[in-house]
Write a structure and sequence with these properties.
It contains seven helices and five strands. By secondary structure, the protein is α/β, with parallel strands linked by helices.
C-alpha cells in the first residue's frame, strides 16, 4: 500500500493564484493518517465561485495567505510520495500558481488523477467527483475542500484494494 496526500483546492475566481480553501488527507498503508482543511485569504477580494463552494471574502479576509500557510502546507504535502486529486491538472495548476506567485518552490511530487484512475479501474463515465463517489458509495459534500480531498483519498484506497498500484 502506498503513501500519498490527497489535495483539493477551491478558488475564489478564475486566477490560479486565488486559492481560498484547501483540503489535505494523508494516507499511509491504506489508512487515513491525518486530515486538514484550511481557509486561505487570496490576493484579491473578487469571488466569482461563491455559488459553487459557498465561500465569500468575509469568510477568508482574516485567514492567513498562501505564503503564510506554506510552512504547514509544504510540510503536510511532503509526507506523501505522490499527490492525488480529482482532475489533477486543476489542483496542480493552483498549487503551482500559488507557489510561483509567492516565490516558493513548487513541490516536485507526481500527481495521480482520480478522474483517469476511475476511468481505467472501473470504466466510470461520466467521471465528475459525485459520479465516481456514487459508484463507489463514498460520502461527499461536493466543493467542500476537506470532503473532496477525503473522497479522492478513498478512491485511491478502493483502487488499491482491487490491486491498483502507483507506478511513479
Amino acid at each position: 500500500m502506498s503513501n500519498y496526500v490527497a489535495i483539493d483546492f477551491e478558488t475564489a475566481n478564475y486566477s490560479r493564484t486565488s486559492a481560498c480553501a484547501v483540503g489535505l488527507v494523508h494516507v499511509r498503508g491504506g489508512e487515513i493518517v491525518t486530515e486538514k482543511t484550511l481557509l486561505i485569504r487570496p490576493p484579491q477580494r473578487q469571488f466569482n465561485f461563491t455559488h459553487i463552494h459557498g465561500l465569500t471574502w468575509a469568510d477568508v479576509e482574516n485567514e492567513p495567505t498562501f505564503a503564510e500557510l506554506w510552512g504547514t502546507l509544504g510540510e503536510f504535502i511532503s509526507q506523501g510520495d505522490f499527490l492525488v486529486a480529482h482532475n489533477a491538472s486543476f489542483d496542480r495548476g493552483v498549487l503551482q500558481g500559488c507557489c510561483k506567485s509567492n516565490g516558493l518552490q513548487v513541490p516536485s511530487l507526481p500527481f495521480v488523477c482520480t478522474v483517469q484512475l476511475a476511468r481505467k479501474q472501473w470504466g466510470i463515465f461520466p467521471t465528475k467527483l459525485p459520479d465516481v463517489c456514487g459508484h463507489l458509495d463514498i460520502a461527499l459534500n461536493h466543493h467542500d475542500a476537506g470532503s473532496d480531498s477525503r473522497a479522492c483519498a478513498k478512491i485511491v484506497m478502493a483502487a488499491e484494494g482491487e490491486g491498483w498500484r502507483f507506478k511513479g
